[in-house]
Design a protein that fits this description.
CATH topology: Purple Acid Phosphatase, chain A, domain 2
GO molecular function: hydrolase activity
Protein name: Calcineurin-like phosphoesterase domain-containing protein
Number of strands: 13
Shape: globular
InterPro entries: Calcineurin-like_PHP (IPR004843), Metallo-depent_PP-like (IPR029052), Metallophosphoesterase_sf (IPR051158), Pesterase_CT488 (IPR014578)
CATH superfamily: Metallo-dependent phosphatases
Radius of gyration: 17 Å
Pfam families: Metallophos (PF00149)
CATH class: Alpha Beta
Organism: Hydrogenoanaerobacterium saccharovorans
Strand content: 15-25%
Order of helices and strands: EHEHEHEEEHEEEHEEEE
């Protein structure tokens, strides 16, 4: 039993938003499917770090989510900046249940125990401009991350955090997010959002004792990254 992670699938199977027009995204759904099936079993867990579907409403996600549901493993989805379909956790989970999407789950202001670890996460925010609304959103996302970590307090296992936005990117640092990670002793953080040439500036290494890794799908060449494997004795 293993944990895998990938972000930014940008699926558009039910909408007209092709990603194949971008460099490196040719046949990406077929490549993702093959890599997923070659690596992941029904007993594994996959965290999807935001920007899952280009759908504009929850109802429009159905084809994309049926595709994801058909792939092996239990999937936990966090919010990305392009997930315009996102609504309340209750509505999304009811939509999953109504449509038989039994392997899909929402990770939002919550935590889940999987394969001997505890998974936490939120969207995050990239503090690029320093405007007033950025300050408010960043504070809110830091609070949501703390809620997720707090939800894990009675769960056994290492706490691993997943974000959509990178907390550290080039010279930009979302200090409030990094502070929550540091204060709570988080040692591993995975994030998406960054694509193409921007990946050259992404942090794949340690900052303040925390190991940060980029998991956007094109950076991973559409192969989910194994981040943990449970060894049974």
């Amino acid at each position: 039993m293993s944990i895998f992670a990938i972000g930014d699938l940008h699926l558009s199977l039910g909408t007209d938003k092709p990603m194949d027009i971008f460099s490196g995204w040719h046949n990406y759904v077929d490549r993702l499917t093959q890599n997923w099936n070659n690596s992941i079993t029904q007993n594994d867990t996959v965290v999807i770090a935001g920007d899952t579907s280009w759908a504009m409403s929850l109802e429009q996600t159905l084809t994309d989510f049926q595709f994801l549901n058909s792939l092996p493993g239990e999937k936990y989805i966090i919010k990305g900046n392009h997930d315009y379909w996102w609504t309340s956790k209750t509505k999304m989970e009811n939509f999953f249940a109504l449509n038989g999407l039994s392997t899909l789950h929402i990770l939002h202001n919550s935590a889940v125990q999987a394969e001997g670890t505890v998974l936490c996460g939120t969207r995050g925010w990239l503090f690029e401009k320093g405007e007033a609304h950025d300050v408010k959103i960043l504070a809110r996302e830091a609070a949501r991350l703390q809620l997720s970590i707090d939800a894990a307090k009675n769960m056994q296992g290492e706490r691993i955090v997943f974000l959509h936005y990178p907390p550290v990117y080039g010279d930009e640092i979302s200090a409030e997010i990094v502070d929550v990670l540091f204060r709570n002793g988080i040692k591993k953080c995975y994030y998406g959002h960054i694509h193409s040439g921007g990946c050259n500036y992404a942090l794949n290494g340690e900052y303040m004792g925390i190991d940060f890794r980029l998991i956007s799908s094109d950076f991973l060449r559409f192969k989910p990254l194994k981040i943990h494997e449970m060894v049974e004795f």
